[in-house]
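Usage

Read records sequentially. Each one opens with the input sequence:
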Amino acid sequence: MSLKVKAATPNENSKPSKTLRSAFRFIGIQRALLTLTILLASPAAWTNVEFDSTQLLLKSSDEISEIIKTKIKRAQVIQSRQEDSDDGSIGVEPEALEELKAAMRVVLSRPNQDGARANLFTRIRRELMELNAVERVLSELATEAIEELKAKDGPRRIATYVVLLENMMAELRPDLGSNPKAKEIVERIRDANIQIGEATKVQNLLRSMTVPQSPSKTAARMLDPKGSKKK
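and closes with the structure output:
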């Protein structure tokens, strides 16, 4: 007795059911949302930020030094295209300044656990001094950090800009009594009244075992050590 196998018709097996099509569509949407979430959470999606503080901490001082060396070299090449003006002064190439600002952002965004910050900061500062742009770059970075911290857009972002401001103020501390522009930067950080939420503190503690402090409070202590002690 022979068995006859009925061939499947296109309507029976070749086409996915409506339920399957809906499931595939739902999975596709979920994947797209997940990809978008990852992109928005990564430093690559942040304005200006190349590395967050955790990524920078995982890099050795030699690796950071190479990053800074590359950016300084690029800035020097760009600046070399600038021609002397009629009065003998040399203008600043905007692209060169952006490279040096990016280098400064990297150095200041890295926790200074190995003590490498001072040397790297000095190297960039030397380049900026030649362009008469030290305070300009630091002021712009301070403004950038304050605006981002007020936006409170995620613990990684908050932690990175807190580190940036704390490191910046540590470098400016010796100049507070003699440099009005340095003092003005610290005063702006104090007056910004930056608040770090409890949820962010907990998340950062779980992620990096550190609790971010308000840069505004640090600035207040720097500007008025005696008054801070009384409080």
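Summary fields computed downstream for this record:
- The radius of gyration is 26 Å.
- The chain is about 70% helix and 0% strand.
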